[in-house]
Amino acid sequence: LTASQWRWKYMGTNMGLPPVRLVFNRGGHLLGHAGAIPLRGWRQGQPLPFFQICDVMVHPVARGQLGRQNLFTVLVRELLSHLAERWPDAFAYGFPGQRPFRFGEYARVYSQVEQVAALHRLSRRGLFPRLHTRPLAWNDPRLDRLWARLASSFALSLIRDRAYLHWRYAINPFRAYQLLGIYLAGWLLGWGVIQKNDRYLRVIDLLVSRRWLKPTLAAPDHAAAVANVAKMEIWLPAVWRETLDGQKKPTGVVVANMIWRLPIPTTEVQGALYY
Predict the structure, then answer these.
(1) Tens-place pLDDT, residues 87-112
(2) Rounded Cα–Cα distance for residues 67 and 132 (Å)
(3) pTM to 2 decimals?
């Protein structure tokens, strides 16, 4: 990553210095890093500090110890202990691959929420009656009003308002995204962040009431057909996917709850987390 990409990732949310952990050897060489992106979250009707744990890295020369001497274990436990001390009610989570997840599970710092499955749907023209879509500006004030209206229906979620969308997508230094407004008879029902390649239209993020999910997904299906790509792809929690048509494919990604000294049990996360 470039320095500007690194700054965007960890400091772009404007929530102060990120609580990362670094390990050096006696010669001053960097051997390990564990990152925590500070985010604004929402739990059962109240704001809550969220932290996405990522970029947990140990140099090959420092790998291989067991138990409390293992640098991966030391790094992640130290980071989560700091979070628990500074933000005792915080929720920390991540999306590791299966191999790093197993390391974290063995170290008793990660607990599996679920394995991510991608939902693939064939693109098709046509929308739910009275439903239509059009591009939406990242700074549209209706984005905040939409989140305020829907927030109470999400038990555990990032705060998906205008500030979040601006940081996560509008000024993203890695990729370009489009924001698609979904309307019912002129009323903003929800939005989807989309990205297109030659094979898929991917729905990267989505805000809509769960009861409107099924008809709403006709919008990206339609957008994929208009863009002349064969399929639409979206990742959703299992409890949101269960009523949807389409092919479900495992991704190799695990949704992990960080459990070392942090309070939110995995059983709650499994039924509540929206991603």
Answers:
(1) 999 999 999 999 999 999 999 999 99
(2) 56
(3) 0.95
